[in-house]
Fold this sequence. Notes:
Layout: E1 7-9, H1 10-17, H2 21-29, E2 44-46, H3 67-79
Amino acid sequence: MRANTQYVTSKELAARWKISVWSLNHLAKQHRIQGAVKPGRDWRFPEDAELLPGPATPVPRAADTDTDAVLAAFLRRLDGK
């Protein structure tokens, strides 16, 4: 555990994030909660814990991505051109 960091229980963080304790623990097992530790049987989370990106939380695309060009290329592939 990090020094000088206040930790909260699964129940406390789940209530704050409005998700079930099971879901929170599942995210912790997937290493999706920054700073989560399991010193024994139960998980502990920093008060300022953040959810890391994963399959259910897509990372936003870069602003310079031209979605119209990507779509046009995809449609050309479908047409075989």
